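Subject: Sanity check before I submit

Could someone independently write out the structure tokens for this chain? I want to compare against mine line by line before I put it in a report. The sequence has 264 residues.
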Amino acid sequence: MTDTIKVIACRHVAETPDRDALVAVQTPQGFRRSTLQQAHERAFREQWTVTDDAALLERCGVPVAVVPGDPANVKITNPEDLRMLEDTDSLPLPCIGFGYDVHRYGPGRPMRLGGVPIPGGPEVQAHSDGDVLLHALMDALLGCFGGGDIGLLFPDTSAAYDNADSAVLLDEVLRSSREAGMAPVHADLTIIAQAPKVAPHRDAIRRNVSRLLGLPPERVNVKATTEEGLGFTGAREGIKAVAVVTGLRSAAAQPTPLQHNRQP
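---
Independent answer below. Compare away.
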């Protein structure tokens, strides 16, 4: 509690409880359905008056644990509280984007994953630098605000993107994200390949991607898996990556117009 709580009687202070032992309890609250239902049935039979489900369970002798709350979780209780709903433009909306990309192995570009060089990795055939992980990440970011895909923004028919640095293209996508009122808050990335081994490079990839996104490393997850020798990745013919980005977008943001051939 941040306020000092007073117990009053006849309009005078009767007691000031120790604030360290007091908490304000929010909703929602979670309980086992069967236990909660039995408590409600008993309260109905015995005509109890309680203020929340926790008090109901406490009165039944059921231990109730607490977890940290959030000051932004404000409950609508009184008519004047409805004014908080009028300013909905200031409330960010959660959004999720999914990205997927594939590159074939063959003479072409030295392998890079998440902007990190992979010494000894197979070369990839690509118009840009062939960073399959950053390409999937860019598509996931674009998905958060309806920005199309990287093929639309950076077409492989344009000489401007020949061997383009994917980190530079990612910066352009992030700029578009900001213009659309969207900020990424978490990225979950998966590399699917039989070769190379990603584990020795995982931490470096995670640190670099978090730097590129401007996020702390704990908000970026990098995973790697094989497909048990199946398909084109199992035959070591190529590599693919998927990305899921969680973001927050301003509710007042306007729909994002799709733009072709953005220059890096």
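---
OP: Matches mine. For the report I'm noting this point. The chain has a mean pLDDT of 91.
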